[in-house]
């Protein structure tokens, strides 16, 4: 009984319609059978008046809808003595909302699962505690939104990391499989960064908050999902575009049938089968189903309109580092300038790169740690997007702190006139270092092409992508060998963010997909028809600018997204045309007098149900299983906290700023 009350509150008109129908059926078995017709007819006219008022409000806002057919059908059926047929149309109108809610909830199941599992609470440590004795910590449980940067947090075994944080404990193991696609546990050491939503292993940990909840990885994903769940696609609006011509056609057939036969009942018989619920419900359900299917594979689609654009995409542009390549280059060699040693140069570069969000930064820092180099104290750091990072370090070259710049040669040449360009082999890249106004040397690295990149590009061509190009900030000698190996003949190298936006805006044919993953990709992702962010590494700016966020670190997700978009639009259009064709067919049958009003109304209900079930095909086949996303993980393990994030995030230590140049 308790479960019925929410249904009553949610669908009062459905309940009222069923009660009126039951009352009428009871009265039919009594001498007051005429009263049944009056009650049913009066109720139908009240609902018609209610719907007409809403329809008029929509018309005043400039939105023409299909409700006029239902209102006209109800009124006509009552006036020609078919109140029961009118009641069936009323049931379709009121029950259609219930069917739509069910279908939408079914299709959004993957999307909403994550929202229910977002971190809500955190255990904040009140007194100082040794990192190796978390059990002794005195804590208070607080809402995750109350956590401030710098707070010490206790993360219990199996619990979610509530905010982006720095590991204080000596060693930890986290489950990050649901976002990165990596099935093995990930080990972290003291000082490493961990994103919110990661699931702790079997040992309690101490962590220091590096970002507030609103700026943390998991909450960023939640906002993306909320945006996706509330979207409405352009193709869905196509159903509204059919409203006026369909209404004119239906009224025309009904009017001709009445005029030719001379029977007003023909007018009502035609209109009761001219209420195209599939146009109103099935298309939105198909798009929500497609978005849910994408979420199953770690693809957060921000809007149904993105699926429509994907289905028509004809060009694709790619950033290089972290997109076509793995984005974790390995150290090839160190080329110190005169007066600097190998280890000293690498130490300078790594000390500054700690504060960079570029995908090369972690590789430089990792190479220094492999050599057991102690990093230098940083007083201040500033990241200059597309150029590099400038950090004030305490070095051995004088008593005062020195500004160390790490990045592109074109940028460093402004500060170190003695800079020498490194001699690079194909596929190698160099990071240049300057200490004050002295050129310190270059760190040479080599990135590896993603093993799935070639296959992904081949699939894109099979799916109708006619033009592919690379748009990168790297130099041509590094970018061109990789592009040639992948069959990309068009390369735009050494591009700044503004250059990328200009190039992408001029590319034909459209629509165009732009694929990137870094801070400097955010403007071009926003400018493209479809921005596709390789977000597994937590590049928040890129993720928020993009239309699709790929939570798994694989380029194979791109052709999958295009395929899902094509399938979804095909199913949505099938639903629209199914509703039109069947409704027109039933109208013609009714026009010749072969379909009584009551039977026609019930047939229309069946057609509506079939169309909605057909739209749910956009969810994909049951046998289709992809890597477990945070959404699928949350749905499958309702009693367990889901793993979610990546290993990088947007939070920065105090005093660290980032400057974007466009």
Describe the protein's topology.
Blueprint: H1 4-10, H2 12-28, H3 33-60, H4 67-79, H5 83-107, H6 109-116, E1 121-125, E2 139-143, E3 152-155, E4 165-167, E5 171-175, H7 177-180, E6 186-189, E7 193-194, E8 199-200, E9 205-209, H8 217-229, H9 234-241, H10 243-261, H11 264-271, H12 277-296, E10 299-301, H13 304-312, E11 315-318, H14 320-324, E12 330-336, H15 342-353, H16 359-370, E13 378-384, E14 388-393, E15 402-407, H17 409-412, E16 428-435, E17 438-446, H18 453-462, E18 467-471, H19 476-485, E19 490-492, H20 497-506, E20 512-516, H21 522-527, E21 530-534, H22 540-545, E22 548-550, H23 557-591, H24 597-615, H25 630-636, E23 656-659
Parallel strand pairs: 11-18, 11-20, 13-23, 18-19, 20-21, 21-22
Antiparallel strand pairs: 1-2, 1-3, 3-9, 4-7, 4-9, 5-6, 5-8, 10-22, 12-17, 13-14, 14-15, 15-16, 16-17
Helix pairs in contact: 2-3, 2-5, 3-4, 3-5, 4-5, 4-11, 5-12, 5-24, 6-8, 6-25, 9-12, 10-11, 10-23, 11-23, 11-24, 12-23, 12-24, 13-23, 15-16, 18-23, 23-24
Membrane topology: Multi-pass membrane protein
Pfam families: E1-E2_ATPase, Hydrolase
Family: Belongs to the cation transport ATPase (P-type) (TC 3.A.3) family. Type IB subfamily.
What does this structure look like?
Keywords: ATP-binding, Cell membrane, Membrane, Metal-binding, Nucleotide-binding, Translocase, Transmembrane, Transmembrane helix. The chain crosses the membrane at residues 12-29, 35-53, 242-261, 267-288, 576-595. The chain is of the alpha+beta class and 662 residues long. Among the domains are: 116-221 and 641-659, Calcium-transporting ATPase, cytoplasmic transduction domain A (Distorted Sandwich); 304-326 and 449-546, HAD superfamily/HAD-like (Rossmann fold, 3-Layer(aba) Sandwich), CATH 3.40.50; 330-446, Calcium-transporting ATPase, cytoplasmic domain N, CATH 3.40.1110. Helices cover 48% and strands 17% of the residues. The protein is built from 25 helices and 23 strands. It has a 7-stranded mixed β-sheet, with helices on both faces. A 7-stranded mixed β-sheet has the order 12-17-16-15-14-13-23. A 6-stranded antiparallel β-sheet has the order 2-1-3-9-4-7, with no helix packed on it. Helix 19 links the parallel strand 18 (467-471) and strand 19 (490-492). It is elongated, with a radius of gyration of 31 Å. The two termini are 61 Å apart. Mean pLDDT is 81; it is low at 1-5 and 625-662.
